[in-house]
Amino acid sequence: MKNIRKNIVVILVCSGIVFSCANTKNDDNPSKTDISICENAIEGKLLNMTGLDGCGWMIELEDGNKLEPINLNSFNISMVEGKKVNLNYTEVNDRAGICMAGKIVELTCLLESLDK
User: In this structure, is residue 66 part of a structural domain?
Assistant: First the structure.
């Protein structure tokens, strides 16, 4: 009887280990994929403005306007100066930025551009 209980415990522990090693890759926030995920996306490029007081990474749009995103770290994208991105955003009017180099925005979608 003791051996049966011991075997059951060993089997349960081994099963738990095997099933806990399942693939848990999460593609909810793709960083390099089809632009159709970001409908009506606009193009921009990443700017490293950390040299200015109170500034961090920003996005410069094709028209030269700069965006100061409040949730840039929510997206799985590597920060590289000049990297082209596709994005959607909403302006945030109830916050003031320290950097004061662009509009404060909340990104609703951010993808690496497929264009090089």
Answer: yes
Distance CA 100, CA 54 (A): 9
Contacts of 34 (CB under 8 A, 6+ apart): 114
Q: Total structural domains in the chain?
A: 1
Query: Strand 84-91 to strand 103-112: parallel, antiparallel, or no bridges (unpaired)?
Result: antiparallel
Enumerate the β-bridge partners of residue 57: 48
Q: Has this prediction a pTM greater than 0.70?
A: no
**CA angle, corner 46, sides to 42 and 52, nearest 5?**
130
Note the pLDDT tens digit of each residue in 9-64: 667 665 656 556 654 444 454 444 455 578 899 999 999 999 888 899 999 999 99
